[in-house]
Specification:
Layout lengths: L2 E4 L8 H11 L3 E3 L8 H5 L16 E4 L2 E4 L1 H11 L7 H25 L12 H28 L15 H16 L1 H7 L4 H12 L1 H7 L22
Parallel strand pairs: 1-2
Antiparallel strand pairs: 1-3, 3-4
Helix pairs in contact: 1-3, 1-6, 1-9, 3-4, 4-5, 4-6, 6-7, 6-8
Length: about 240
């Protein structure tokens, strides 16, 4: 069965967390809106009134046979269980999902650095507020989040090579994306912050070196970071 991933074709965004899991799983999938015909009507199909009884609110969502699964963390809960990217026991799966939801909170805060007033406004319409929001984010929120995940790794009973257990999970893949995105958006700030979180930096490098992930990163399937995504580099926000 080939999965169908529904997400915007020009950005990594929240869909990238799903793409990384699909790639590491070696899953057969179609990135619907990135087909040669740029199928944006197909992307929106299941969100339209009357298309399905339980429509997704927004991309990303994943079609797996008769299942239509929305929300990034929810999709990763499904893929982790199905493809061995989560612990086999219930407690481990719930812990993995809990960490994934915390990552989702961080992603929302990253987005709000450049859109602190409203998503419907351009960045240029809220630059003073974005500068103030980002200063607080870099000074307080990034160290708090990364410090938490660093402690999670340090306390992992299976060793500090992973966030959960002794094998790669969806949260390891997602943390790779977090570190990569923060490096792109805030290179100066991360140069100051990252040396205090060496386990996470090492995790990023281990994930990047996984054969399937490396092949994906080196391929045209990996959309480059760009000014339209969640992780955006504005020099004025990274003094």
């Amino acid at each position: 069965m080939a999965y169908e991933l529904y997400y915007w074709p020009e950005i990594q965004g929240r869909g990238e967390f799903v793409r990384l899991a699909l790639e590491q799983a070696g899953a057969d999938y179609v990135d619907i809106a990135r087909k040669e015909d740029d199928d944006l009507p197909g992307l929106m199909h299941y969100m339209q009134d009357g298309a399905v009884p339980q429509p997704p609110f927004a991309p990303p969502y994943l079609k797996a046979g008769d299942l239509l699964i929305g929300q990034t963390a929810n999709i990763l809960l499904f893929l982790g269980d199905r493809h061995g990217l989560a612990p086999a026991d219930e407690a481990g799966r719930l812990w993995t999902h809990q960490l994934q939801l915390t990552i989702a909170d961080l992603v929302a805060e990253v987005h709000d650095t450049h859109h602190p007033i409203g998503s419907g406004l351009y960045y240029e319409d809220q630059k003073p507020e974005a500068k103030r929001r980002t200063a607080d984010f870099l000074a307080h929120r990034v160290p708090k989040y990364l410090g938490y995940f660093e402690r999670v790794m340090a306390r992992n009973p299976a060793g500090d090579a992973h966030l959960v257990g002794a094998e790669v999970t969806t949260v390891d893949l997602s943390m790779f994306q977090i570190i990569a995105g923060l490096r792109y958006a805030f290179p100066k700030a991360m140069a100051r912050i990252e040396p205090k979180h060496l386990r996470l930096a090492a995790l990023h490098d281990r994930v990047a070196a996984l054969p399937r992930v490396k092949a994906y990163l080196d391929s045209p399937r990996r959309i480059p970071f760009n000014p339209m995504g969640i992780f955006r580099h504005y020099p004025e926000l990274d003094p």
